[in-house]
Amino acid sequence: MIRNVIFDVGGVLLRLRYQPFIDYLAAAGIDMSDLPRWLERVDLAAHERGEITGEELLGRVAAMAARPLEPGELRARWLDMFDRAQEMFELASGLMAEHRVFLLSNVGDLHWRHLDAQYGLEDLTHGVLASFRVGAVKPSAAIYREAERRFGLEPAATVFVDDLPANVAGAEALGWRAIRHRSPADTRRQLRALGVRLPAPFALE
Hints:
Helix content: 40-55%
CATH class of the largest domain: Alpha Beta
Radius of gyration: 18 Å
CATH topology of the largest domain: Rossmann fold
Number of strands: 7
CATH superfamily of the largest domain: HAD superfamily/HAD-like
Strand order of the largest sheet: 5-4-1-6-7
Largest sheet: 5 strands, parallel
Shape: elongated
Structural class: alpha/beta
Order of helices and strands: EEHHHHHEHEHEHHEHEH
CATH architecture of the largest domain: 3-Layer(aba) Sandwich
Distance between the termini: 21 Å
Number of domains: 2
């Protein structure tokens, strides 16, 4: 029986809008044609593990530009990547009546502070685990094991919802149930199939 439901944040509870930031950097002469390689160059993963701060990350980005970037504008554009996915917020909060609900996110310090201030993530569910605080990122086993330790999770009684296949596979490798989030309706259907009791009005679908 599923007792624990864990949600990713970016791409699940919040819709991501990367393109305006990419366009802004490209206009400053930063080559974004190979995005995965560019993310390796700035070492986003190290930032999300808490090894470099958000300000340090943005300093690396600014150093790549062909023309000077105004630090305040760069920071504002970095933070302005998210829109609230209302149905998923309602699902997460509604599930708390009968399930233990948590958030598990690959995220750096600047984004987390901004998103918590805007959306109240720290108090939205029964607990949160942000990667920059624990030094590990999905799909590394370490962050899932830390969630088990911190929240007292039994893997077989836990379902994880994430939009990235690698993160879903990482959870499944440790015995968690996992759902790849594609749409609110599809995620609710998959949760229902696992026996998760959905809150009204979703239970009537």
